[in-house]
Amino acid sequence: MESLDHVFVEFRPQPPQLHRYQGETEEDGCYGDDFIHAHSPQLDESLDAYGCGYAHELREQKEVDSSPSSLVVQIGYSCAGARDFDCFSERGMVNEMLCDKLEMKLSTYSISETKSETNEAIDGDAAYSEIGNRSNPAIGLPRAQDLSCEKIVGVLVALPQKEVAHSFIKWRKENYINGKVDLVLPDEINEKSNKTKIEFFFTVGVLALRQLYFDFHLPAWPPPPGPPSATSPDVILSNIIAAVSDVRSRNSAALACRKWCLLERATRAAVSLRGNLRDLFTVPNCFPSVSSLDLSLLSPWGHPLSSASDPALIAHVLRHAFPSLSSLTFYARNLSTIQLVASQWRTAEHVKLVRWHQRPQISPPSTAGPTTFRRLSRQAYPSLALNLTRLDIEGLKSDEIKAITCPNLIEFKAARRFDLSLPLLEELGLDICNNVRDSGAAFEVLNSRCPKLRSLKLGFFHGISMPIESKLDGVALCQGLKSLSIRNVGDLDDMGLIGIVSCCSNLPARQCLKALEPIQDRIKRLHIDCIWDSAQELEDDSDGVGFDLNCLDQDNGFDDDGMSKERKRCKYSYDLNMELDVNSNGYGNNVRTWDKLEYLSLWIAVGQLLTPLVEAGLDHCPNIEEIRIKVEGDCREMSRPREREFGLSMLVNYPKLWKMHLDCGDTIGYAHTAPSGQMDLSLWGRFYLIGIGHLNLTELDYWPPQDRDVNQRSLSLPAAGLLQECFGLRKLFIHGTAHEHFMMFLLRITELRDVQLREDYYPAPENDMSTEMRADSCSRFEAALNRRRISD
Amino acid sequence: MGSSIAEAHNVRVLGAGDTVVVLGHGFGTDQSVWKHLIPHLVDCYKVIVYDHMGAGTTNPDYFDFDRYSTLEGFAYDLLAILEEFRVHKCIYVGHSLSSMAGALASIFRPDLFHKLIMLSASPRILEFDLMNYEEDIDELCGAMESNYKSWVSGFAPLVVGGDMDSVAVQEFSRTLFNMRPDIALSMFRMIFTFDLRHFLGCVTVPCHIIQSSKDLAVPVAVAEYLHQNLGGKSIVEVVPTEGHLPQLSSPELTIPVLLRHIQHDIVDGDC
């Protein structure tokens, strides 16, 4: 067994929950409205209404309709795994060798998402019987001769009930002569999390699949009822497979043998189709139980179903292949698609219309006034003043407040309106040696009234930053501050500090990283703004002084543009959340490394280089797997950079890096000829992509820079040329358009399996004729891609 | 198979009207350069837009290297499209080199053209526009060649037009680098060799010459040369715009001018 490759397919099970598609699809940048309707007439109405632009009303209606009684069919697992075309391998280690054995053509169609029907999670007995009814009684654990692999080395099964162990032992004896079946009984399982472990060991010829490891839990595992069949491997397996939500694992299970394949098909509840619209008539019909179908990711991406050559035929074929649909997701920009779908699936209860081209959300102005203070006295009676120890007031002007004299006052709350409006105030110290609670909102007002405030010193103020999830508040919104000193604050926790720090867009990266040193070996995810210190600061800041919030006024190039700051705050406020692993050793290591760091997110201004990253402290990150780089700024204001390349090559320092988001979508420049001395976008594209071939990337999302004047985000010649050097790339999503012959460059990447152009931005190209990519071009490229032999 | 021409050229027919307006884009772009103009035309005219063969939006396999080694190939394509869609008379709006292809087509079949509207046109691109940039042209040749070689051998083509110092050469080379390297190389040769100056006298249909006041690729002098040498009536209007694609970069100034010239013919006093 030592020689076996291990493949872990890890599940992140979640308790049964209302199936909110919105949440899971947002990961893909998809935004949609949920429509939940009990009857088709309502559906028709709602679809008409949608076409007429009344979507907002329906959204409200959804809230009403989402009563518990109507939720039953929408209970499901949200799939924690990626929406993957590449449905067999997690890291490309498990191969697709059995692809041929599948009836469906994965090169054309693949199943990228699955949600298992888990009615049983609500009603154990009823659902149990339903599962039993649905699965073929003959289906069970595979016999050795049924397995498509040559020899099974062993099976490790962990079961929550001791009773069923005997069945497995018997099954093992019947089927695995030389094999090994280990049972892990409930006692050995972490019962608290109701975890069940199942490991299947396979040897499949000389190919790569060696071991498949499932680790998931079965919520509401049905108690073994009376009938003996309840404890038979068949039913157990049926339940197990039904509970598997990860699409790759399901496909792996389906590859084990024909019976498992049938069982998997019978319990597959949701399918997301990829492939080209014009090939839809070859859609597999081996998924009769699918109740939820996602058509929004078909190619050409962003083309409605109604743009097929024979939409009615396509709809008919789809209906034939998926007869029991209740939930449907598709892309729609006009009424015809909706009518088409409505005519075919009159029983659909849940329809989601995807709009890829979401307008950027304009953040509401900071209206968080002193609402928390609207509680108490409207008037302060001077006669009471002598006895007062607590005072909470609102709406008084500053000169009125000045008139209050309360010698015994311990607690003073004033919803200060800052009516004085000190537009020129730059420095403010407030240290009143008495506790001031819930002061956050006051600092927001302070910020609006004193736009030039640069330095703030606070003492005994509490609640200055209490972010709720990604919504920042209080002093974190004081955008203009260059210096902040906080003393004696009682309730500033990690998240509060993170909130403040994450708004410090001009914090030098090097100092930020230094500040994180004490916990750097525990951080798993990190966002950092790449604000590089000047060379001088790099030199003199080598004494290891810790992070000091008082020292922030060193940076230069401060930006007075409140608007851009406001935008930026909204965009990045959620980024700097670290996931701390409490099991780590913590302190005590002199040589600190970023051992736990798996995900790195970077923001960098256009024209800045990536190369100082290592120097700034992110030098030893052995476990970074994913990186997201956001480049933002206006190239049109910049002259040609001195350096030829941005510096992606330095990321070879991160040996495990396999996934990258390179987002230049908010980099603005000239798509056509640039004025003398400046670079056009093709050169900027080259600047950012040089060196990407040196990284051993498997997945890449690339947003080309854009020219807003002509609404163009196009892959340029050098970009295509540089992308084709990523030899290990399997998955490439370009969030823009491209000429066909540029796309054809990509065919040189032998491993490439999944490529799509996604125009998921606003405004969308007006039509097919206003982009660089025609539907025909797209189809020719996909055909060429699918024609290739897949080496593994 | 009639529709193959329409399909190969991504032809779209829009709007309704008795008069047909055909829009020909310049090389290195595609029909989307007319996106600001089309909405103003569709109410009164039948509009035909198409992509030139070799444009990034067409199937490179259809590019016939012999046919398109001269400008005539493009002129024949235009005539084929007009025939396919049974256009007996049209107003042709051509941008850049396409306006010359239109002029050539009008020499072959003057009966098909009511008038030509030439935007940023030049009968001999090197002679007029790029003669001051010999070094740049040499560099561009080298870039083209190396890109072509690297494309053939599978290495990344990394030299692009923007590398050239001259903005005029940048603009010119953009047309080339938007094409597949072998097509671009062929086109490059064609552009070097094509010279319509001696045929201008044969163009008898009325020509409206519209020109950016600041187009480094096509100086204003070229418009004047065209005006002097065209065989038929012609008129010049210089629009206070910058760049070689004014219909895209400054639609607010360019579109009204184009519309005016589409709507009104030259009267004898004008020329």
From TrEMBL, chain A:
It comes from the Eukaryota. GO terms for biological process: SCF-dependent proteasomal ubiquitin-dependent protein catabolic process. The lineage of its organism: Eukaryota, Viridiplantae, Streptophyta, Embryophyta, Tracheophyta. GO terms for cellular component: nucleus; SCF ubiquitin ligase complex. It holds the Pfam family F-box_5. Gene3D superfamilies: 1.20.1280.50, Ribonuclease Inhibitor. This is COI1 F-box domain-containing protein. InterPro entries: COI1_F-box, LRR_dom_sf. It comes from Salvia splendens. Residues 231-269 form the COI1 F-box domain.
Automatic annotation (TrEMBL), chain B:
Keywords: Hydrolase. It comes from the Eukaryota. GO terms for molecular function: hydrolase activity. SUPFAM superfamilies: alpha/beta-Hydrolases. InterPro entries: AB_hydrolase_1 (IPR000073), AB_hydrolase_fold (IPR029058). Residues 20-250 form the AB hydrolase-1 domain. The keyword Hydrolase applies. The keyword Hydrolase applies. Belongs to the AB hydrolase superfamily. This is AB hydrolase-1 domain-containing protein. The lineage of its organism: Eukaryota, Viridiplantae, Streptophyta, Embryophyta, Tracheophyta.
